Amino acid sequence: MRIVPGRWNAEVIAMVAVLVVAGAELLLLVLATPRQRPVISGVLLGSAAAVLVVFGEAWHVLRRRGRRGRRSRRPRPSDEAWFSAETLEGFPADGIRRWLAGPDAPDPNRFYAAWVLATHGRDVRWIVRHLDLPEEAVRLLVEAAREYGGAGG
Asked: Which domain of life is it from (predicted)?
């Protein structure tokens, strides 16, 4: 089981830095002579404050960056947006109908996806390999997309 994340973010690095500094401070304080302890304690208190300021600034920057990212994200389109009337304009439904009949027929959405890919320039082999559709049906879609004005190939 893996405990440490695959990617260390700034918060984890800052936390490790705070722990290392705190450990070093305690070690120095234990090893110091009684006469040196007030001076070392003051230096350690100052370094702890500096580490706290750096950690706070890093946390603030990350939060600000996170908020900015959330605002700029647009909601993902729903399934209907992918296969709207505009995207399916020119789709050869009559030519594909024979592959949609039968108990082992592919999902019509895969043919719609193949149509969208064909209108965006994907070739027959690529669509067959990625959508697992009959080559003859995909060839029909690519040719129809080319005739319709897409970049099919």
From this structure: Bacteria
What is the residue-wise DSSP string for the chain? ---S-SS--HHHHHHHHHHHHHHHHHHHHHHS-TTTHHHHHHHHHHHHHHHHHHHHHHHHHHHHHHHHHHHHPPPPPPHHHHT-TTTTTT--HHHHGGGS-STTPPPHHHHHHHHHHHHTT--HHHHHHHH---HHHHHHHHHHHHHHTS---
Would you state the structure tokens that stand for residue 50, as one six-digit string?
């500096």
**């580490």: which residue's tokens?**
51
pTM: 0.46
- Give ∠ CA 27-28-29 in degrees, rounded to 5: 90
Q: 147 vs 86, 108, 119, 140, CA distance in Å?
A: 16, 21, 10, 11
> Which residues are CB-neighbours of 118 under 8 A, at least 6 positions away?
127, 138, 141, 142, 144, 145, 150, 152
DSSP 52-93: HHHHHHHHHHHHHHHHHHHHHPPPPPPHHHHT-TTTTTT--H
How does pLDDT run across 9-45, given as a tens digit for each residue?
Answer: 777 787 888 788 778 878 888 888 889 888 888 887 8
